[in-house]
Amino acid sequence: MTSSSQSARDLWRTLRLTLPDLWRAQPLVTAGLFLSGAAQGLLPAVTVLIGKWTVDGVSGLLRGQPVNLAALVGAWVGAALLSQVTAPVTQVLQGAAADHYTLHVNQRLMRRMTELQGLDVLEDPQFHDDLEVLQGGASHRPLNLLSTLVYALRGLVAALSVAATLLLVGWWVPLVVVAGLLPLMARQMQFHRLGWSLFIQKTPEAREVNYLSRVALRHEYAKEVRLYGLAPHLQRDALTRTRAYQRTLRAQRTRGLLTLLPFEALSLLVTGGLFAFVVAQAQAGRVGAGSVALVVTALGALRQELSSLTEMGSLGTQHLSWFAKLHAFLNAPGGVQSPAQPRPLPGDGTVTLCGVSFAYRDQPPALRDVTLHIPAGQTVAIVGENGAGKSTLIKLLLRYYDPTAGRILIGAGDGQTDLRDLDLTAWRAQVAAVFQDFARFEWTLRENILLGQPQDDARLKVAVHGSGLRGVLNDTCTLDTRLGQAFGGTELSGGGWQKLATARALYRGARVLILDEPTAALDPRSEAEVFGTFAALARGRTTLLVTHRLGSVLMADRVLVLKAGRIIEDGKHADLLARGGEYADLWALQARQYEEPVEAALSLSASGG
Ligand SMILES: Nc1ncnc2c1ncn2[C@@H]1O[C@H](COP(=O)(O)OP(=O)(O)OP(=O)(O)O)[C@@H](O)[C@H]1O
């Protein structure tokens, strides 16, 4: 099977999926729309016929024959009225249906994003290419498809009815005209299809250009962009890429237009030949002046209708290709998913990892054969050098990814359950987390803490005090102050944001607490305060603390040392120090960083320097 017939079949399937959707969104409006489109389609044929009757009537008048003027004027006024009424009605109906359908499509895209529960899908560049195309089209493709379908119906009715008027000249005339114009139509369709496939191929490049302009314009990059004088480089790069992109499109357009020329010539030959033939027939007295007028207007109208039908067909193909992408996107496997029939949530927060390994897409393993048992209520510090796999362990526990091998079990004894068998939302509701790269939502402080949950005053107070956020609040910054600059809100300091992220975690009464470098942006006093709170908060909860600041490890019952994705040490702080291994080395290294400058300062002051 050729790829074009394959894609025609795909498009037909997409149309069959999309039409019922359009219909369900607004049945009456859609029916009205297609009816008024079909009515409009009859107008060109009516105009051609009125033209013939008028010319025949006038010729008759010149020969002294009677003419039914009232019928002629009636037909003309009727056609004008139909044309004036149907055009605005079609526009109004189209607007109503398209608004509704655009909302419907946007809602489905948003719903899809909430169905994607893991992070795995988001790391596929193809996913972002598809999303770029879909988001870019969501505001206009539904309207475009709808109007294209209506105009295509209008064009089809018009072409058929105008072709039918040519039957008055001879049964073979419409066949010859259509045969002369069909190759041109087919070629034009092919040309437009190429345009779409080029657009899809170039999406990654368009995304690169969008990324460059985001870097140049967005606040989060502004400091580096200015300090390192990046703006001219970004501008140059965007310009070069855009020009290359446009060059390819232009070359393709020109090539396509040139290949249309022979087909244009053929269509001209056929319609010109037919015109010459009818004039010759009139000269020989075999047909009347009205028939010549009919052929002239019908050929013009047919050419125009077929050409706009081609255009509609091509545009419709593009819109349908967009919808095919939408259907594929909505129905693609979504990576991490909640089970259809989840097992009940275990009663306690014991966590067990059995031979867990994990590799990110196309990457070497980030975790290798990790086996670990954390009884409910234990506080475990996880330490290790950059890239050791600490955050990955946390992400698996939150089921942002599933292990490549091994199992994560929640609960103890008979209640122990594989994490994959638990309802994801229910499990995540049991976990509170402060991430290294927590989100800074540009909403009010209160909304940033509640994150959609109902307000509980007592819990909110504990969260605000426990996180140290109390110190951030004052007369000008209250719980109802909007944060961030995008909407003219107040900007918190880095530490202020971190306290807010901590308050968010504290507000969620959770059985498992995850702290991934939770104090990286805090000053020493705030850090001490927050760790005091964490220690109280961790009581009775299973707590995992990822940290590079080994002083904070002292709040943990147990320390895990990760290296290259494996647990290489596991024990109490004092025992690990005594063992003299990796942990003892890291501890000594960090202690020296504090001691040496002090010693240096002391020796400097002793020497009177
Ligand atoms: N989303 C990702 N896609 C591909 N590779 C990743 C991704 N996230 C992390 N990695 C890689 O996985 C390995 C473990 O990373 P991880 O973030 O778990 O380390 P870490 O111990 O938390 O490091 P750090 O102390 O720097 O935060 C690293 O080699 C890292 O480059």
Automatic annotation (TrEMBL):
<dbReference type="InterPro" id="IPR036640">
    <property type="entry name" value="ABC1_TM_sf"/>
</dbReference>
<feature type="domain" description="ABC transporter">
    <location>
        <begin position="351"/>
        <end position="589"/>
    </location>
</feature>
<keyword id="KW-1133">Transmembrane helix</keyword>
<protein>
    <submittedName>
        <fullName>ABC transporter ATP-binding protein</fullName>
    </submittedName>
</protein>
<dbReference type="InterPro" id="IPR039421">
    <property type="entry name" value="Type_1_exporter"/>
</dbReference>
<dbReference type="InterPro" id="IPR011527">
    <property type="entry name" value="ABC1_TM_dom"/>
</dbReference>
<keyword id="KW-0812">Transmembrane</keyword>
<dbReference type="Pfam" id="PF00005">
    <property type="entry name" value="ABC_tran"/>
</dbReference>
<keyword id="KW-0547">Nucleotide-binding</keyword>
<dbReference type="GO" id="GO:0005524">
    <property type="term" value="F:ATP binding"/>
</dbReference>
<feature type="transmembrane region" description="Helical">
    <location>
        <begin position="257"/>
        <end position="278"/>
    </location>
</feature>
<feature type="transmembrane region" description="Helical">
    <location>
        <begin position="151"/>
        <end position="184"/>
    </location>
</feature>
<feature type="transmembrane region" description="Helical">
    <location>
        <begin position="67"/>
        <end position="85"/>
    </location>
</feature>
<feature type="transmembrane region" description="Helical">
    <location>
        <begin position="28"/>
        <end position="55"/>
    </location>
</feature>
<dbReference type="InterPro" id="IPR027417">
    <property type="entry name" value="P-loop_NTPase"/>
</dbReference>
<dbReference type="InterPro" id="IPR003439">
    <property type="entry name" value="ABC_transporter-like_ATP-bd"/>
</dbReference>
<keyword id="KW-0472">Membrane</keyword>
<feature type="domain" description="ABC transmembrane type-1">
    <location>
        <begin position="31"/>
        <end position="318"/>
    </location>
</feature>
<keyword id="KW-0067">ATP-binding</keyword>
<dbReference type="InterPro" id="IPR003593">
    <property type="entry name" value="AAA+_ATPase"/>
</dbReference>
